[in-house]
């Protein structure tokens, strides 16, 4: 495990730019100390390792189909998060090393570039159409083939999974209705959607011997973390690369050690990537890249995908939901140049709202007037006007009837601060594009409280799996037993 009271070991990818700088003597590995961000990533890795161990123990203890499928899904999701976090940690180390090298080699300091604001993105109402044969769907012939299916959604190191659903030939679409929300996302995001499937007809062998179960304790945790530290020395790769897949540009992927855990296995059916251009405040259809059809079409986990995915993808940039700038101003319109009004102004979203006083903003009072601020607005700072005895800012709205507003600030520092806020706001709007035309609505996922049944693990294991409503879309939300929960409690307590 990563130790907080010990000096962290710096990891350098072989053949990377950082290794070349080390060889040239530009800096030493000892200067690569953990920053606060590094420690946070390491803490998240430790958390996922504990979740992975808990999923392994759950697979070893349970024999019910639903519980085994959920535990295997958790195992796959945790592996994906560990892989993404290790890649992020490696990139952070290389970036820190390159920054130190640039500071030592350059005479002058580098000017920080303007960065756009981040925001929330939400994907919901996922529909994946199926293309069954006529003999299977309409005539209801052949064996009723069932698969457990879920989606894995990833933006950077933030990974979420959907509920499990049972799919057979009675369904024409795979549906995931609940929204999945990603926070602190830049406008250049890449949302990867992966569809996984597992055949549920087979008999799963989940039993581990007592000796094997006891080995999944702290010893395996130390060995696993040691393997992760070794993996960090490999070259960084794309966050979408999975264990066992080839890495782009010939780089060596960070491979996770494989644990021999018996149970249901999920297979990647299809995937797609969604970016800023796919965001619309409506339900849209996107192309879906299907995995190797020639090799998997005869597999038990295969489903006849149509090749499309329908969903609603929306975004809320912070510039549309948070206050960018606020303060006291004097404003006049060119239609009435003698009417100066002392107001308290708030810049947020696509408006500069002007209130009579600051308390009106907290009481949700209607503003006295509103100045539109959008991509068609032009803002410029004027030199000190002898007539006004102050610096001024001019706002010109070129959409519709052209209107000009003149703003006076109380100090030159205030003028600079407001101009900087306007430029940053315009830059955020230019980067988020259509997401700033209107505030899109994001529905929060519903909170489901699971009530655990009382009873022994024996009664849970001898109860046959339910076969009711097998022809409907069924989320696998059966609560686990109290014994299995206590088995995992030691691993989940420190995770949050």
Automatic annotation (TrEMBL):
<dbReference type="GO" id="GO:0031106">
    <property type="term" value="P:septin ring organization"/>
</dbReference>
<dbReference type="GO" id="GO:0007165">
    <property type="term" value="P:signal transduction"/>
</dbReference>
<dbReference type="GO" id="GO:0000915">
    <property type="term" value="P:actomyosin contractile ring assembly"/>
</dbReference>
<protein>
    <submittedName>
        <fullName>Rhotekin-like</fullName>
    </submittedName>
</protein>
<dbReference type="Pfam" id="PF08174">
    <property type="entry name" value="Anillin"/>
</dbReference>
<dbReference type="Pfam" id="PF00169">
    <property type="entry name" value="PH"/>
</dbReference>
<dbReference type="GO" id="GO:0000281">
    <property type="term" value="P:mitotic cytokinesis"/>
</dbReference>
<feature type="domain" description="REM-1">
    <location>
        <begin position="17"/>
        <end position="98"/>
    </location>
</feature>
<dbReference type="InterPro" id="IPR012966">
    <property type="entry name" value="AHD"/>
</dbReference>
<dbReference type="InterPro" id="IPR001849">
    <property type="entry name" value="PH_domain"/>
</dbReference>
<keyword id="KW-0175">Coiled coil</keyword>
<feature type="domain" description="PH">
    <location>
        <begin position="322"/>
        <end position="427"/>
    </location>
</feature>
<dbReference type="InterPro" id="IPR051364">
    <property type="entry name" value="Cytokinesis/Rho-signaling"/>
</dbReference>
<dbReference type="InterPro" id="IPR011072">
    <property type="entry name" value="HR1_rho-bd"/>
</dbReference>
<dbReference type="GO" id="GO:0005826">
    <property type="term" value="C:actomyosin contractile ring"/>
</dbReference>
